[in-house]
Amino acid sequence: MKLNKIYSAILLSTLPLTPALAAGLDRSGQSIAAFLQPGNYAEAGISILDPKVQSNHLKVNDMAEDYYFPSAAIKVQATEHISIGLLYDQPFGAESLYPSNNPVFGANGEATQVEVETHNLSALIGYQPTENWNFYAGPVYQTVQGTVSLRGLAYGGASKLGSYDINLKEDEAYGWLAGFAYQIPEIALKTAVTYRSEIKHELDTTETFKFGAIQPPNALTEVVTPQSVNIDFQTGVAANTLAFANIRWAHWDQFAVTPKFLNAASGNNLIDYSDDQWSATVGVGRKFNSHWSGSASVGYDSGAGNPVTTLGPTEGYWTVGLGGQYSPAENYFIQAGVKYFWLGDAHAQTGGNIVGEFTDNYALGYGLKIGYRF
Predict the structure, then answer these.
(1) d(Cα 109, Cα 101) in Å, to the nearest integer?
(2) Which candidate, 357, 337, 334, places its Cα nearest to that of 347?
(3) Beta-sheet pairing, 308-309 with 292-301
(4) Using CA of residue 156, residue 158, residue 159, residue 165, what is the dihedral sign?
(5) Closest Cα to residue 116, out of 193, 41, 201?
(6) pLDDT of 118-147, one tens digit each?
(7) For the chain, what is the largest distance between any 2 Cα atoms, rounded to a whole number of angstroms?
(8) Which of 45, 49, 124, 362 has the smallest CB count inside 10 Å?
(9) Of 168, 64, 149, 65, nearest in space to 105 by CA
(10) How far apart are CA 45 and CA 336, in angstroms?
(11) Cα–Cα nearest to 262, from 354, 165, 353, 352
């Protein structure tokens, strides 16, 4: 079961590349696996999610939009003991659109919809006192923006919040991450613990309510993206075979978006969550020959509380995933993955009142990645 570094790195790359669909607004899972690759390494990937979120008794056939998000990373082993890296991802987001002809979530040809977009750029520097230990830290640059429209009887109709719009203009802010990794390359054992700080944003906000009443454009809405901890583990278990696991905690239970005008009109938050997120993925990867590898995994996500917001009415999930990799040469590979999500049933609420239940939901995720060692 002794593995050299190149073999270990190739087999490690069989970890399934498929998008996350997690509690709250979590998307990418904020992995730093690329930074822990041996030597000099670069990768670029794209993930696509195709969800179906429905409510039979509310006559909502599907309110969840398809979306995609790219990722990229570069890691350079500057000296024997110092490494540097740059990671890009889109860690949080939302994309939903209700049918405009449903009076619960639509009115006058318009529909309830939400779009939230974030971008993360993490710069890391690592110190490796021995080949076994790696201590790393660095700053994180993050942008957030979003738009939300509320329509229909779920929000009290046009006389209340059923004609509300909000535009949260892009804001940039900074956080940090730190962690450590331990490895025994000969047996492909590697474990890493990474902490990411919360990041506080204050977004310029324009709110439109009822018959065109507009909040002054210099109003600010606070959005704090959550702190998190990722634990990654892998080890060789047999010839040509790895076992791997990932555990993630994200601090969603105090997350709330509270625009001033909406809160003054209703006493409620636009979005909030009641529980922290816990998620886990476990699986195996196997090298079939010098060019082909594959992996299989199962996963669980706890969700962030139930009832949930009508803007994202699911509660956790179970998953099964498959990944495959083709390596034409030792220094580069092409990887693809697919994952099926059984999304948890949830009671959707607005203003503290249950609107209805969303059941029998699912999603398909696809991913493609190219990696290169130089």
Answers:
(1) 7
(2) 357
(3) unpaired
(4) positive
(5) 201
(6) 999 999 999 999 999 999 999 999 999 999
(7) 71
(8) 362
(9) 149
(10) 9
(11) 165
Q: Cβ(94)–Cβ(312) under 8 Å?
A: yes
Compute the mean pLDDT over every residue in the chain, rounded to the nearest whole number: 89
Looking at the chain, the number of H-run helices and the number of E-run strands are 2, 25
Alpha-carbon distance 84 to 77, whole Å?
A: 7
Cis amide prior to 70 (ω within 30 degrees): no
- pLDDT tens digits, 71-88: 999 999 999 999 999 999
Q: State pTM to two decimals.
A: 0.93
Letter string b/e over residues 235-244, b meaning 16 or more CB atoms within 10 A of that residue's CB? bbeeeeebeb
Nearest 10 degrees: CA dihedral of 14, 16, 17, 18? 170
**Who contacts 206 (Cβ-Cβ below 8 Å, separation ≥6)?**
166, 167, 169, 214, 215, 217, 219
Task: Select from 6, 8, 10, 88 the least CA-distant residue to 334.
Answer: 10
CATH number at residue 212: 2.40.160.60
Per residue in 218-274, pLDDT (tens digit) is 689 999 999 999 999 999 998 889 999 999 999 998 899 999 888 888 888 998 888
Residue 184 identity: I
Q: How many CA atoms lie within 13 A of 235 on its CB side?
A: 5
The alpha carbon dihedral of 33, 34, 35, 38 has a sign of positive
Q: Which two tokens stand for residue 219?
A: 């109003």
Beta bridge partners of 136: 126, 179
Number of domains in the chain: 1
Which domain range does residue 235 map to?
5-373
The H or E element that residue 349 is part of is: strand 346-350
